[in-house]
Structures
1.
Amino acid sequence: MATKRTAAVLRPALNGFLTPCLRSNCTPKFTLSSRSLSLQAAGPRKSSARSRQTVRYASSDASADQVAKTGLYDLHSSHGAKFVPFGGYSMPVQYSDLSIIDSHKWTRENASLFDVGHMVQHHFSGPGADAFLSRITPSSITTIPEYSSTLSTLLHPETGGIVDDTVIARLPDKFYVVTNAACKEKDLAYLTKELDSWHSESENPKVDWKVLDNQGLIALQGPKAPEILSRVLDTQSVQALEKLYFGQCMRATIKGTDADILVSRGGYTGEDGFEISIPPYATEAIATFLLDSAKKELRLAGLGARDTLRLEAGMCLYGHDLDDSTTPVEGALSWIIGKDRRAKGGFHGDSIILNQLKKKSEGGGVSRRRVGFIIEGAPAREGAEVVDAAGEKIGNITSGCPSPTLKRNIAMGYIKDGLHKSGTEVQVVVRGKKRKAVVAKMPFVASKYFKAPVSK
């Protein structure tokens, strides 16, 4: 039934099949970290040796019959995708027409289409939705305008540790929430427990929760993304897109379809772009239509490029740069804690988190902070130790790779509080050798988000 509906609804908008991608003999040149805007549940970090062509990904212990497929699996296959298990799904790491480095550069210069359908999409509604989300996150949920969103974190009640990072958007009648694929089982158990606790308190208003199973999600990223998306939207949607800024979302319609899509301006690469939530029956047809409408500017991109892009953009990878033992303050995410929340608290772990926001002279602060590093010599990978001049351990690397844009080795990790200022010289132990490194500001590559003008 779904197949017939897709053909009937979307065929008028399509202009034929895509030109097959050219075959290349390139091989991955980066160690791949797995994510989000996603990642395996946190566990003890271990250092391990990896060759340049080793690919690291989530759910590596999953057997073939346990790995699911997104609605775009066949499309990936037809474009020569190389698949890896990722967050419980078989996901493309790269394609036959571009190396990971070339795909990275293509995104920065043109536009790429990423399949993020492995992410978990939710709806929270009902009279208690605002208050419930305010309890489990530190964000100012009640002040989010309609069709606007915020990055946030789900928090453990006692410790303020991060259960998962998430994006929360307010729609007219509900909240749209996206969480990480590899945290799915943990997140579902957490949300079930939290909702049961919420509803056990008789004074709390009802909250309805729906997981959008099989809902498509694609990310159109790069400087040419707005032009490409405008080509396939109907006239009314194009006009709305011109006024859509970073962090905002809108309902839209693709030409010749009846599919109701949600377009959010943002993404995981640091470039201007959009994440598009699509009904299951229309996902493949709309992705194909986008590719077919911009054959010279748009290409599919996989997890390899997505990982190097997000690290250049200074974005965290849950299960590596963030985990259950990390608070938002330690993770350099204090900005997600709303001003009203700082004054009144009322969220999980508030006593710990609010105390961490205080100065050390007031009895607050943290012992470590997430920072960026520029490293000389060989690239540092997850698990590498950060040491001082005397060889004493003062931190650790959580993500690292050669930067295709900067032509330098970059990394993210944690360092002892007080040594976290940009320009601080340290050393990183790579393959048993100490390499010179310096604490650096993030993002490593300036973000190009389409932001609203700042009012004076």
2.
Amino acid sequence: MTASTSLKVRLPALVLVLEVVMLVLYALFVTYDDNANAKLQNNQTNPMENSLYRDYPYFADVQVMIFVGFGCLLAFFRFYGFSGMVFNFLTATFAIQWAILVQGFFQFYYDGKIHLGVINLLNAEFACAVVLISFGAVIGKTSPVQLLVMALFEIPFFSVTEWAVLKYIRINDAGGSILIHLFACYFGLGVTFILYRPRLNAGHAKETTSYQSDILSVMGTLFLWVFWPSFNSALTLKGDDQHRAILHTFIGLSSSTLTAFALSAVFNKRGKLTMADIQNVTLAGGVTVGASVDMMISPVAAYALGIMGCTACFFGYRYLTPFLAQRLRIQDQCGIHNLHGLTGLISSTAGICAILMATEDTYGPSMYQIFSHRAPPVGDPKLLELQKLIPGLKPGLGRTAQEQALYQVAAIFSTIAASIAGGMITGLIMKLSFMASPSDEDCFDDELFFDTPCDFDSTDVFKTSENCDEHVKMSSVNSKV
């Protein structure tokens, strides 16, 4: 390992600074929310009505997606399995801690404290997912120092964009197609555009997979597939909205999976299946139904969206990814533009169509709960009538379907613009010389940042018997401990 990529000082120093800063901020500003505060409990408090029992199952499911699903999925390179899983672990852990503070800033602005509960952890996990999606664009070409810096800046960029869109533009985006998938995709593309490596366009000797790494990556796909309904439904309205979100997500994932197998076999020259298609394209339906996941779009529409998303994602991997690298200086390593960008745009368009088609004949009075910005404003006599039918219905903005659709379009363009700008700024910071960035030759290789075992089969490095003996000794010591 050369001095320029040594983590001996860089990583501990960065972690120490970040931990000291967060210790101070947590001590000053973070406290329990009402459901976790013992002082607010009494003999009339029913423990089973605590929000923990409503929110924790979704938190646990998304936790599995973040740490196991993404971790295994990103371990697809033959010589980069340690880095794919462990850097995901490192980045995700920091991103969630940091997101609690950054997202809590807006709460602090109003009442002087950040009230922490399981729902805050769940929101922080969604912010973390944004970072991990962006990580896919630069995997294999960045150091852990650079990844922590990316999370450090992306979380605030994302949180401010999310706050501005939800507060001022006000949109429907239950599954996060706009604010999670599109933002993460174009932020990652902005970063990789700045970190462009022309010598990697022709490929890299270590940019390969293996039998074991592909199996591990498919395991990640399966974890993401199984828990994606929780991801899409976690923040929807409880009851029928959440029920529809789960149904639509499963149907979309199912149809995209079948389509992926068919396309993979048809377009393979020898009529065989390609593991990369199974690992990535099968998940497209989960994104494509996101923007309309809680709406009355009908099961057949969810099925069609899964097919459309899968098809766009598949051809994006085959044709668009190479074009972006060769013509636009965008080396999208995991093809996040296909799985999150193209499908996010399809999903957002479908959401706009669903908004335009929404009527009281289809939804009944609950239309003004699902499309809350279309509810009558304060003072409108219709609001009082609706509140008799739906107690607790909040006043809206009185928007028409056409007006809300235009706001959705504005949110798409605003989010993409903010994410690209944020990604390019972050990329410039990550490009600084002291960030321990690997050289072109050292990309996609665990040996640059890890002590690897003696059976690590790097393409150009052969372990000596002394290395193997030392590893066996260390393994023996660890097993005794």
3.
Amino acid sequence: MVELNMEEMSLPALYEKSRKIHQAASDSSVDQDTLKKGCELLNKCEEMIAKLGLFSVNESKDDISTNNLKYILVLYYLGELTEKIAEGDRIQVLKSSQAKLKEFISFCEVMELVPADELESSAQAMGNASTDRRAKKIARFKRQKAAESKLLEIRERKERRGRSTRASALSTPVEVGEDDMEDDDGEEEREAWLITISLALCKSFDLLEMLKKEEEMLSAIRERQSQEGDNELSQSILDERAKKAEAWHRDAATRARYTKPTVPITCATFAQDVLEGRADVSQFHDHKHQPMLFGPASLVGKNPTSERERIAAQVFQPYHRLPTMSIEEAGLKEMEIMNTWQESTKKLMEEANSSWYNDNKPPRPDEEEDEDDDAAQDKARAWDDWKDDNPRGAGNKKLTPCG
């Protein structure tokens, strides 16, 4: 059904339909049938362009009309869609995609659409294999960003002009028999197509380098597989590795029967002494606490008896230091400390209240001044009597106005 429709469709219709498929494949992933349909449409476009003779090697970009500029992108679209096909021989798909991209770049070079610096870098790459690819990629990336921003600017300007045209058409009455006149934007459209071709060239160069690397890797892998005897040798290598792994596990299980693991240290204090070098691991220590199990609950809950279950139950160990005594033991220790303190305090109080302590107590400085207390007391009483007889301000009565 698609082939019948393609025979009846015109070149602009074929191009527009294939362009929409390419846009959908670029924005998101599409199924393989849609990709094949797009490739068929683009091949039909290429065939019709050749029959119509739209382009000639004797022409340049200035000789091509604005309406025909968009058909230059047919080869670029075909190369990109061909690369996305995932069926069949991948190397042949890569070669077909590279052929279309190279044909597109060569045609643009004939039409003087390839930038001069890109041509210079290509010539240097053929003459010198150690060309600085990083500088070339940076320059190409800058051209790509400039082209994208310019296309966005043209699109926004066209949308603003369209809105203003529609607004003026609504506000201005149209006379009978008068046709709507469209703005002559041929120059702007031509500029947009030329920028689109420049952007496609930047992407073509990058995609071509990526496809070359992928083809080289796939060719190297295929050559290596052919040298190693393809799948048979690979399967024998896998079987040999599996046998080695099984033998290693079997020997490890046999050795585990006769190897007794070291008894774990369950006392936090002794473990800290070992870590800090104050004790040796082999030193005898009386472990008062039983090993605590932190493994799976299915093993911990049923009190494992075998060595295997005990080791499995001790897989998950705490990352912090465990307590060296229980809460009851800590309480008894604290009570013992408190009783010792109370006994020592009681002994000190008894010594302080004894007669021997009071007799041998050194005299206080206040007791030496008791003899002068009577004289000081008489002097204070005399001073109080004088203040009663001479109140404050009594000698200044004559200086007051009402005195």
